[in-house]
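Sample log: Putative methyltransferase YcgJ.
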Amino acid sequence: MENTAKEKVKEIFGKNADKYVTSDIHAKGDDLALLVDWLKPKETWTVLDIATGGGHVSKTLAPHTSQVISTDLTEAMLENTAKHLRAEYQNIFYVVADAESLPFLNGTFDAAVCRIAPHHFPHLEKFIAETARVLKAGGRFVLIDNTAPEKEELAEFMNMTEKLRDDSHGRCLSKTEWRQLLQEHGLEEIQSADRKKTFQFPSWVRRTAETEEQIEQVRRHLLSATEEELNYFQIRQQHQEIESFAIDEWMVLAEKK
């Protein structure tokens, strides 16, 4: 089951690699500007970018650090990202790596970042354990991901929306669940921020949906929303067509004890 999930991730992201380089949500998020401010990276640092996708974290941190190790499970995605970044950034190095089994020694990195990716990982506790393991004592970790509402029914609706569009989606955790995982693995929360992230439905759904039938399933699911779901996710529709909706995103900075 686990291997099947990871093969699905590689299949979907390999086919859509270039879309993640150019996607506004991934390339221009406000959180990228906050990364440097929160981490306060030093020129001597070696930083790990876990599941880099389109390389936006690596690109943001490279000018401020000694080197960035940019990793991804999907080789085709990583090759595409390297093609876009190699000419401009000589201190980014690319390694095919599973976030749940990182090929690095204990205490290797001054900082690690994982952005808008963990909801694809089958075993999030392994991911957090591995991140904590490869960080130096006092190392900093920034996690940024879509989060599920605390209310179970809303969380189920949100995760189903993602799963219908993208079969490689695993599960978005709530902030409570994330905080428990961080604490269990010796990562102490320093600061965090919440924001609502709005998706334009037509471009969002076509980023990973493979057929018109799949797009229709997602549309029907959003149209079936209860009043509470309509309000929480700010679902905007006109003439039975979904225009946009919003989900929660959480950014947290933690330090290894």
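Observation: Strands lie at 46-50, 67-72, 92-96, 109-115, 135-147, 187-200, 236-238, 241-256.
Observation: The mean pLDDT is 93.
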